[in-house]
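Field reference: sequence -> structure
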Amino acid sequence: MGLFNLFKGKDDKKDFDGKIFAPLNGKIVPVEEVPDAVFAEKMVGDGIAIEPSGGDLILAPIDGKVEKIFDTNHAFSIVTDSGIELFVHFGIDTVQLEGKGFERLVEEGKTVKRGTPIIKYDYEFLKANAKTVITPVIISNIDEFAGLEKSSGDAVAGETKVLEVKFK
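Structure field:
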């Protein structure tokens, strides 16, 4: 890598430190323990999952643009200025609930700040009706970066760092 590219990469980051925060309250779980092979085998990317401990809001884990919110409102993606593609998927097989238990609070294309409520959810309904409420938080384009540091323990929505992307 030449000197020019070294500085160019720093500018591209736009001072983003790579830290990604918990979208909801709960216990951080290794992504390999998610009871769904698509996530556990990292087919969609790498990250962590959170076993929610209640609450009713899924917050933006980073500043960025809401690229996609599924019609059923159970999952969304945010893309940062530095190119990180973050995917948050509430529960497993929650798409089969056809949107019941979820309410969209922002629209696709909106730029959000970390901590902005994205989805409102009914924890008790989802706990009773979903296969599991464990929520993967995934970097779908992790191959474009130098690595990923994962946290463990308890997470507080909008406050606890759960992932840190290492830039090349």
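Note: The longest strand covers residues 46-52.
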